[in-house]
């Protein structure tokens, strides 16, 4: 419990209306999109400016109160769960697009701007901001930056980190730093911009960002290729890239996902195929046409059972429906849906999917896999019921083995969802003991009193499994 | 106690189905207005679940938050997990109503309206007759002149100003019977749901509905024992009374043995279509309720199927469309009204920006939550004004009144009129009478 005097102080900074400690507010900010995680904060604070963030941070530092920064709370790693109570700092009120600079092709935004609003604002000017996480209609750019979010276009265009040119951020002592700028080149000192991207709210609070824009591609086309054998689908992915074609989109659904999607939408997908690739290209019309033809030829050579190239906008929409419905279809199967995230080098997709299948069967679970084949980022998704504690325990063991398998294949425990509390026990598997030490050193340099998002990224003890909690 | 009532009523499986992805948030008007997690569908579901889990006491803030929800159900179609939010909020409101202590006058008004007025169609007509007298006899004019109305809250004054002319007679009286034969070959036997308020304040729309159906080849049966659909009851937490009304309607239309049951009010239609859910625990009525629910269609669906727009008169005006929430999110009817409007010869259809967002009417929401309703309406009217349309079409009486109020409030009177889609279609189908232009 925070003493009344501190609440008083916070109210004075942000105003009565933007400092909430009634039960309703504490419950509403006790969760994010991560299944089975919940913890109540002591107070919810919604600042409107960098200056207010600074003052809140100073007050927190003075009284040693933990702060969890929150955008839209759409993350899947428990990143915004206030496990140690304290302040949840909601940045959704700081949601202004500050400037679109058409001379320099940059956009300057406050952290609470929704990703989709950035897309709309710049596309209206014929410009393009490529990162498109599946959650972009709700997620904020601050959250995207803090988690270095990726999306369907990651393969060709990269992820959030490739578009952040400069940041303004408030340090735990209340100081403001500015990194980078509207510059394409800058090697003055350590690259703090890149360090803050993906720092999961553990180093500083991002209060403004300068993002890089590119011209909007002229056209876009898509196709579906279906394969009787997972290995052939995976080989097609490698062959496409080996042939020096970088598709704008290269997504994949496994057989389990295909069956569930077909059951849900009845769009005429063959349910006996092992995998479907959704492949898209964008750019100059002639280049796109030529790439689509070459991609189709590669898939045919790898014995694709069927190839469906969209020629009209309606057909394109139909083709995209398969990928878009995946989450909806899966989430309707059982009450709890655990959407996980493991990444392997793309040549290892086939063995990774095989490993997931083997683990799923051994534990007697329902796990389907879909994801970004082009960059090796897979989403094994488990349909379960949080109330069944015995099953949930098996789920946790299964995922632990899945992450281990990913590491074994040269991959990582998370490609886009972040570490948070969920993956913290496994981080050392990926970065090693020395890596952990240096990361902890960086955390200490920024945040000596461990106030920003404590217990995230670094588990209290190594490998304590996340335990399901229900009141 | 409220807590027990909620634990009993809430469907825990559905609460657990919410995966907290937040996809529902951009669709929610109260979240957009406040930016506050608790005022979003994900937040409200989390609050319900927190109560069910024993994490939270259902206090006054909880009840206020549930009341701030419009019940527009815009959150449902966008939910990947298919969480039936509409049912959850009704269960919550039923629990709240069970334990709530209203001030005596609210109790009296609720009791009068929900138990002694809406369920009895005859009384609705009597009230209609009284209203008609008030409007016609000069009393209304006198009252307005005297400024007596200034004691009413602003929202109510605005409603009084746009109240359409009431009728003491329903459509059965008008047609002098309950069976209206099809013009030409009979294609369907259609049961007409005339609604309670609809048949008093929008009798012309009801008459036009019957006429259009009959001219489209439907034999129209106005099932005589039908009553109010119960939507206002269900949305206000009186689910038991809603069930009572549902049984009466199911019986009335089952007896009439119709192929289709047609509604011309999205709010009623969505309720009628959910009778099978409403009566799910009633073994005796389950089968008939399913029979009933499967037959319910909106008038625009039936007309889109049957009419031939080629025969319509030209209407050289700009038309825009505000889609009503329960028609869209409850009945899932989106294309048909637009297709019909686009088929009107000579007319220019302009899409209303955010025409799929709630106008703030939401049953009696505009009366009990004037602040939120007012700001939603102002936002709506700014988009409406931008269309520069001559005619603003809706498909539900509540929305129609709200749009009329909005036109009044935005000072667009004389520039634009709000019309029910049925009345507009009747206008273009009318051969003898000259087309009326907006006043
Ligand atoms: C259905 C679904 C699909 C998804 N698809 C994708 C996907 O395709 N790709 C992907 O990468 N992710 C995806 N995600 C995960 C998530 O949506 C993204 O990671 C997103 O970037 C989170 O943004 P947010 O605004 O919700 O951040 P939040 O969840 O609020 O916060 C995320 C983290 O960032 C920190 N943070 C937030 N704002 C700031 C700030 N201003 N300064 C410092 N730290 C801050 C928080 O403390 C937290 O650790 C998906 C999630 C869901 C539910
Ligand atoms: S969209 Fe559905 S599952 Fe997602 S938070 Fe909203 S109600 Fe829950
Ligand atoms: S019914 Fe409407 S107001 Fe209520 S939570 Fe859903 S979208 Fe929001």
Automatic annotation (TrEMBL), chain A:
Cofactor(s) required for function per UniProt: FAD
Gene Ontology molecular function: any one: oxidoreductase activity
The keyword Oxidoreductase appears for this protein: yes
Top-level taxonomic group: Bacteria
PROSITE patterns in the record: FAD_PCMH
This protein's record includes keyword Flavoprotein: yes
Pfam families documented for this protein: FAD-oxidase_C, FAD_binding_4
PANTHER family referenced in this protein's UniProt entry, alphabetically: GLYCOLATE OXIDASE SUBUNIT GLCD (PTHR42934:SF2)
Name listed for the protein in its UniProt record: FAD-binding protein
From TrEMBL, chain B:
InterPro entries per UniProt: 4Fe4S_Fe-S-bd, 4Fe4S_Fe_S_CS, Cys_rich_dom, Glc_ox_4Fe-4S, Helical_ferredxn
Cofactor(s) named in the record: [4Fe-4S] cluster
Cofactor binding annotation: Binds 2 [4Fe-4S] clusters.
Gene3D superfamilies, per database record: Alpha-helical ferredoxin
A single GO molecular function term of this UniProt record: metal ion binding
EC number, UniProt record: 1.1.99.14
The keyword Ribonucleoprotein is annotated on this UniProt entry: no
Pfam families assigned: CCG, Fer4_8
This protein's name: Glycolate oxidase iron-sulfur subunit
Species of the source: Brevibacillus brevis
């Amino acid at each position: 419990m925070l003493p009344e005097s501190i609440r008083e102080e916070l109210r004075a900074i942000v105003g009565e209306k933007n400092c909430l400690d009634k039960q309703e507010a504490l419950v509403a900010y006790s969760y994010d999109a991560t299944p089975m995680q919940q913890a109540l904060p002591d107070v919810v604070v919604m600042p409107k400016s960098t200056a207010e963030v600074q003052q809140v941070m100073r007050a927190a530092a003075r009284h040693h109160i933990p702060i969890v920064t929150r955008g839209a709370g759409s993350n899947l790693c428990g990143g915004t769960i206030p496990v140690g109570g304290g302040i949840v700092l909601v940045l959704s009120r700081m949601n202004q697009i500050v400037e679109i600079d058409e001379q320099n092709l940059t956009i300057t935004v406050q952290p609470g701007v929704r990703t989709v609003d950035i897309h709309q604002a710049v596309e209206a000017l014929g410009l393009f901001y490529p990162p498109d996480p599946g959650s972009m209609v709700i997620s904020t750019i601050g959250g995207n930056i803090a988690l270095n979010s990726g999306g369907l276009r990651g393969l060709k265009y990269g992820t959030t980190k490739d578009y952040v040119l400069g940041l303004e951020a408030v340090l735990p002592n209340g100081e403001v730093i500015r990194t980078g700028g509207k510059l394409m080149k800058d090697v003055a000192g350590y690259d703090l911009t890149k360090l803050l991207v993906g720092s999961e709210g553990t180093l500083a609070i991002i209060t403004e960002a300068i993002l890089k824009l590119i011209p909007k591609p002229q056209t876009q086309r898509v196709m579906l290729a279906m394969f009787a054998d997972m290995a052939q689908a995976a080989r097609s992915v490698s062959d496409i890239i080996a042939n020096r074609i970088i598709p704008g989109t290269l997504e994949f659904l496994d057989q389990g996902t295909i069956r569930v999607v077909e059951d849900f939408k009845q769009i005429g997908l063959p349910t006996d195929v092992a995998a479907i690739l959704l492949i898209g290209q964008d750019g100059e019309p002639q280049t796109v046409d030529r790439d689509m033809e070459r991609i189709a030829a590669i898939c045919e050579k790898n014995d694709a059972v069927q190839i469906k190239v969209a020629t009209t906008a309606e057909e394109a929409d139909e083709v995209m429906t398969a990928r878009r419905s995946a989450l909806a279809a899966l989430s309707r199967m059982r009450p709890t849906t655990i959407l996980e995230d493991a990444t392997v080098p793309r040549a290892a997709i086939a063995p990774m999917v095989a490993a997931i299948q083997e683990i799923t069967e051994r534990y007697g679970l329902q796990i389907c896999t879909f994801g970004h084949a082009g960059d090796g980022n897979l989403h094994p998704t488990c349909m379960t019921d949080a109330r069944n504690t015995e099953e949930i325990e098996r789920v946790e063991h299964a995922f632990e083995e899945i992450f281990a398998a990913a590491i074994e294949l040269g991959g990582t425990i998370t490609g886009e969802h972040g570490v948070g509390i969920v993956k913290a026990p496994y981080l050392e598997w990926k970065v090693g003991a020395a890596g952990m030490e240096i990361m902890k050193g960086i955390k200490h340099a920024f945040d000596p009193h461990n106030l920003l998002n404590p217990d995230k990224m670094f588990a209290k003890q190594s490998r304590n499994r996340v335990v399901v909690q229900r009141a | 106690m409220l807590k027990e009532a909620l634990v009993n009523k809430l469907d825990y499986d559905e609460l657990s189905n919410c995966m907290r992805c937040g996809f529902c948030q951009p669709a929610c008007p109260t979240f957009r207005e406040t930016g506050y997690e608790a005022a979003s569908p994900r937040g409200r579901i989390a609050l319900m679940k927190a109560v069910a889990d024993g994490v939270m006491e259902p206090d006054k803030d909880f009840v206020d938050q549930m009341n701030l929800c419009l019940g527009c159900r815009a959150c449902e179609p966008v939910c990947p997990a298919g969480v039936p939010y509409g049912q959850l909020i009704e269960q919550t409101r039923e629990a709240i109503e069970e334990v709530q202590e209203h001030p005596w006058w609210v109790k009296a008004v609720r009791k009068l309206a929900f138990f002694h007025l809406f369920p009895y169609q005859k009384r609705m007509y009597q009230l209609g007759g009284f209203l008609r007298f008030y409007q016609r006899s000069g009393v209304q004019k006198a009252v307005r002149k005297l400024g007596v109305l200034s004691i009413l809250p602003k929202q109510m004054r605005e409603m009084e100003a746009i109240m359409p002319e009431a009728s003491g007679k329903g459509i059965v009286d008008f047609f002098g019977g309950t069976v209206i034969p099809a013009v030409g070959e009979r294609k369907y036997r259609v049961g007409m749901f005339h609604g309670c308020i609809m048949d008093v304040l929008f009798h012309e729309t009801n008459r036009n509905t019957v006429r259009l159906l009959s001219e489209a080849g439907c034999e129209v049966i106005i099932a005589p024992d039908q009553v109010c659909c119960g939507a206002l009851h269900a949305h206000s937490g009186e689910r038991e009374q809603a069930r009572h009304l549902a049984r009466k309607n199911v019986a009335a239309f089952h007896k009439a043995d119709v192929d289709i049951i047609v509604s011309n009010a999205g709010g009623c239609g969505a309720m009628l279509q959910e009778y099978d859910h409403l009566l799910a625990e009633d073994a005796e009525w389950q089968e008939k309720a399913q029979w009933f629910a499967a037959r319910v269609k909106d008038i625009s669906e039936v007309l889109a199927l049957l009419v031939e727009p080629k025969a319509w008169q030209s209407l050289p005006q700009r038309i825009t469309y505000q889609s009503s929430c329960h028609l869209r999110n409850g009945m899932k009817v989106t294309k048909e009204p637009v297709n019909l409007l686009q088929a009107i010869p000579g007319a220019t259809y302009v899409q209303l920006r955010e025409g799929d967002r709630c106008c703030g009417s939401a049953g009696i929401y505009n009366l009990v939550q004037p602040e939120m309703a007012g700001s939603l309406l102002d936002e709506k009217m700014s988009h409406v004004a931008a269309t520069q349309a001559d005619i603003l079409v809706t498909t539900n009486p509540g929305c129609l009144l709200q749009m009329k109020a909005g036109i009044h409030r935005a000072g667009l009177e004389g520039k634009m009129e709000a019309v029910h889609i049925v009345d507009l279609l009747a206008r273009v189908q009318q051969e003898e009478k000259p087309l009326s232009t907006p006043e």
